[in-house]
Amino acid sequence: TYGGGMYLLSSSPTFTNVTFSGNSATYGGGIFFLFNIHSGLDGSSPTLTNSILWGNSPEEIYFWEFDSASHSITISYSDIQGGEAGIVANDGTVYWEDGNIDADPLFCDAENGDLTIQSDSPLLGAGQDGANIGALGVGCEEPLSIVDNIIPNTYTLSSYPNPFNPTTTITFTIPEFGHTTIIAYDITGRQLETLTNEVLNMGNYSIDWNASSYPSGVYLIRMGSGDFTQTLNVVLVK
């Protein structure tokens, strides 16, 4: 078998913020390159930016060694297991550009398909222009606590302490059954972490947010439940 994650046949796609993980094949567990001599086309020359190739077997990228075509890959700001040595290039060309790393991405639960990353992952802010590397942001949701059994009649959202360092407790109430999200953003609106994303009964809840991996500043906590949305400013002071 060829190309557990991606099989390229005379094609040159651009991959940005993509995660390849947990794939396997005889050749190229992550990405496999092949040239079709009958197509009249050239080899494959994809570009990979802000992406992850980790935990694929037996190798992350494989160039088919019997091709007469010229293959290449351009990689920047990406996390490649084994680094450049994790690529079996044969006669192909690897353009290993700025920002690449070889570091455990700290997936939340890769064995069960959760490829979100932990809050102390080396991929946070390591991408081009300070973006995260990979397709998914921070996950590993903290346990959600039910504060009491009193049924509320309004939506509320608050945090204490605020300002905080480095953990604040976010409390919220929902007066009706429904899908509820609590998401943390930086001041520019870039999504940082999903704290809650589940269907909840009406009630009063709390969840802790540990922002130890982020710099001092103002952050936004956005709650969405049914048609209701509210945004709360919280201040991290280190």
Topology:
Layout (H helix, E strand, L loop, with lengths): L5 E4 L4 E3 L2 E3 L9 E4 L12 E3 L2 E3 L6 E3 L8 E5 L2 E2 L6 E2 L4 E4 L10 E3 L4 E4 L27 E4 L7 E5 L6 E8 L3 E9 L4 E10 L2 E8 L6 E9 L2 E9 L2
Parallel strand pairs: 1-4, 2-5, 3-6, 4-7, 5-8, 6-9, 7-10, 8-11
Antiparallel strand pairs: 12-13, 14-19, 15-16, 16-19, 17-18, 17-20, 20-21
How would you describe this protein?
By secondary structure, the chain is mainly β. The protein has two domains: 6-130, no CATH class; 145-236, Sandwich (Immunoglobulin-like), CATH 2.60.40. The chain contains no helices and 21 strands. The strands form six sheets. The protein has a four-stranded parallel beta sheet, with no helix packed on it. The chain has a four-stranded parallel beta sheet with strand order 2-5-8-11, with no helix packed on it. A four-stranded antiparallel beta sheet has the order 14-19-16-15, with no helix packed on it. The N and C termini lie far apart (52 Å).
